[in-house]
């Protein structure tokens, strides 16, 4: 279907991003889509030899912020290729500090720290909610995670009136002037009957176990405002005293929307990079929607959504970890449906890497009409003109010409099922400009696998509110689905040793 006619993909993305204010929630949203499409959850800690079969569809998570999903072709044999699509679940945000209980001039404030390279001035004067993961003690004594989403404005970072500081350029101290206000001390005292404590503190004091147990550090209702803990506990469905710890992220409560005179824009938080995460997940799902889709496929189709790209990826759940190499190693030796005793598995991993391909999907820079001089004159991506292939001579992006040729064929073949193919754009930064990077170079280096960097064009990257194209969502989904459907055939025709 022509994405210029169909806005459904963009509307589905709005629902996805609104439901996913944190990487925890993004993984949960992706899990729900995959489960509905018939994918089965597996665990890293389990053996896969008897579980993962040709024709099967599976997914797993790590830290509940990274997700890998894959579908195994029925003609799969050990050492065969894997078509891979990588994206990331995190965005620049403000995170609640481990000790966030702050007060000043009669206000209750919440201490936050910056995560990633955000455009932090865009966080001022926004209606902020809080979401994340709470670790809670359950009735049977175990400690489990609960997702939390306080989807109403409870925090705000107010700007200083221009009358008090007529600076031409808005500047501020991120440590002392980026703390949101959460309420008034007087109102909190009235709520608790003039006490500096609260219901949460009282529960903690009245608990005999709490009196006897050694506390390595201050209680959670001392480290954070008691009512803040009460809200988190309520959302998690537990008592405040059962909240052991939490990881909370601030988010803009304004919903994502279709905008523009002709509804050609998406105005949304976290386009970078939930837009790519959504398109990758749906692309994989669409590629196996037909019951016979995997019948003649000798490859594995895989999507990896990593955490921590915005801070360098060098974490246990980042792209620069053992996550993807370990999974590929296990997949490369999965037996075929007609496994023979004489099959040699000793080099299956290396064979798989040498014939596989990775698309690194991360958002790209659309040309800005007010700052056009910042763009190289012959490489100015436009919104709603299709995905952007990103190229850099210093390999800040992993793209090279064999990859460009492959994607050209994938985009052209997207038209084989009817309708039009997928238009593509090319982007390089100016020689006098710095260049960002992606998970592409680090994964191509660690795996030795051919890689290409691409993404949908957008404006205001790393702002709390970004702008993308309504129709680019459909273009990317169509491209990614074609990649998975056609890689088994195409990889044999583009030979570079």
Give the structure's gist in a few sentences.
By secondary structure, the chain is α/β, with parallel strands linked by helices. The protein is built from 13 helices and 20 strands.
Distance linking N and C termini: 37 Å
How many separate domains?
Answer: 2
User: What is the CATH architecture descriptor of the largest domain?
Assistant: 3-Layer(aba) Sandwich
The share of residues in helices is 25-40%
The fraction of residues assigned to DSSP E strands is 15-25%
What structural class is derived from the secondary structure elements? alpha/beta
Q: Give the oligomeric state of the chains in this entry, treating copies of one chain as homo and distinct chains as hetero.
A: single chain
What is the CATH C level class of the largest domain, in words? Alpha Beta
Largest sheet: 9 strands, mixed
CATH homologous superfamily descriptor of the largest domain? Zn peptidases
Rg over alpha carbons: 24 Å
The count of strands amounts to 20
Strand order of the largest sheet: 1-2-3-13-4-14-18-16-17
Helix count equals 13
Outline: globular
Family: Belongs to the peptidase M18 family.
Catalytic activity: Release of an N-terminal aspartate or glutamate from a peptide, with a preference for aspartate
Enzyme class: hydrolase
Keywords: Aminopeptidase, Hydrolase, Metal-binding, Metalloprotease, Protease, Zinc
Architecture blueprint of SSEs:
Layout: H1 8-18, H2 23-36, E1 40-41, E2 57-62, E3 66-72, E4 82-88, E5 93-104, E6 107-115, E7 128-137, E8 143-155, E9 181-184, H3 185-191, H4 199-206, H5 208-212, H6 220-223, H7 226-236, E10 243-252, E11 257-259, E12 265-268, H8 271-287, E13 300-306, H9 323-332, H10 348-355, E14 357-361, E15 364-365, E16 388-390, H11 401-413, E17 425-427, H12 439-447, E18 450-455, E19 457-459, E20 466-469, H13 470-490
Parallel strand pairs: 1-2, 4-13, 4-14, 14-18, 15-19, 16-17
Antiparallel strand pairs: 2-3, 3-13, 5-6, 6-9, 7-8, 7-10, 11-12, 12-20, 16-18, 19-20
């Amino acid at each position: 279907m022509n994405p210029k006619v169909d806005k459904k993909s963009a509307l589905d993305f709005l629902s996805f991003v609104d439901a996913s204010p944190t990487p925890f929630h993004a993984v949960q949203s992706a899990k729900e889509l995959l489960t509905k499409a018939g994918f089965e959850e597996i665990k890293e800690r389990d053996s896969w030899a008897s579980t993962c079969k040709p024709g099967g569809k599976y997914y797993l998570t790590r830290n509940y912020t990274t997700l890998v999903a894959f579908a195994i072709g029925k003609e799969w044999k050990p050492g065969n290729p894997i078509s891979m699509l990588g994206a990331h679940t995190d965005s620049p945000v403000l995170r609640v500090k481990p000790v966030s209980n702050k007060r000043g001039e009669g206000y209750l404030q919440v201490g936050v720290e910056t995560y990633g390279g955000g455009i932090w001035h865009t966080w001022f004067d926004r209606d902020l909610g809080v979401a994340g993961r709470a670790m809670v003690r359950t009735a049977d004594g175990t400690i489990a995670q609960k997702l939390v989403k306080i989807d109403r404005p409870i925090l705000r970072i107010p700007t200083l009136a221009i009358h008090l500081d007529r600076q031409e350029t808005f500047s501020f101290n991120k440590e002392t002037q980026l703390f949101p206000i959460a309420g008034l001390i007087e109102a909190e005292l009235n709520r608790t009957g003039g006490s500096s404590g609260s219901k949460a503190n009282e529960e903690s004091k009245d608990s005999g176990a709490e009196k006897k147990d050694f506390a390595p550090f201050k209680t959670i209702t001392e480290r954070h405002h008691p009512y803040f803990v009460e809200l988190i506990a309520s959302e998690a469905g537990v008592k405040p005293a059962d909240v052991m710890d939490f990881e909370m992220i601030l988010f803009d409560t304004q919903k994502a929307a279709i905008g523009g005179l002709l509804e050609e824009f998406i105005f949304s938080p976290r386009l970078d990079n939930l837009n790519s995460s959504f398109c990758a997940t749906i692309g994989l799902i669409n590629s196996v929607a037909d019951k016979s889709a995997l019948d003649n496929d000798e490859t594995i189709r895989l999507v990896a959504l990593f955490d921590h790209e915005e801070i360098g990826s060098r974490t246990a759940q980042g792209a620069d970890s053992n996550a993807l190499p370990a999974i590929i190693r296990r997949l490369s030796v999965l037996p075929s449906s007609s496994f023979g005793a004489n099959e040699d598995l000793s080099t299956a991993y290396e064979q798989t890497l040498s014939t596989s391909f990775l698309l690194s999907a991360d958002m790209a820079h659309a040309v800005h009409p007010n700052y056009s001089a910042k763009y190289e004159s012959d490489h100015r991506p436009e919104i709603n003109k299709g995905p952007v292939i990103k190229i850099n001579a210093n390999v800040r992006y992993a793209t090279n010409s064999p990859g460009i040729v492959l994607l050209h064929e994938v985009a052209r073949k997207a038209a084989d099922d009817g309708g039009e193919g997928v238009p593509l754009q090319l982007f390089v930064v100016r020689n006098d400009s710095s260049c960002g990077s992606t998970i592409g170079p680090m994964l191509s280096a660690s795996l030795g696998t051919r890689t290409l960097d691409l993404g949908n064009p957008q404006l205001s990257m790393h702002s709390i509110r970004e702008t993308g194209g309504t129709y680019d969502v459909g273009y990317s989904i169509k491209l990614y689905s074609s990649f998975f459907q056609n890689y088994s055939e195409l990889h044999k025709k583009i030979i570079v040793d």
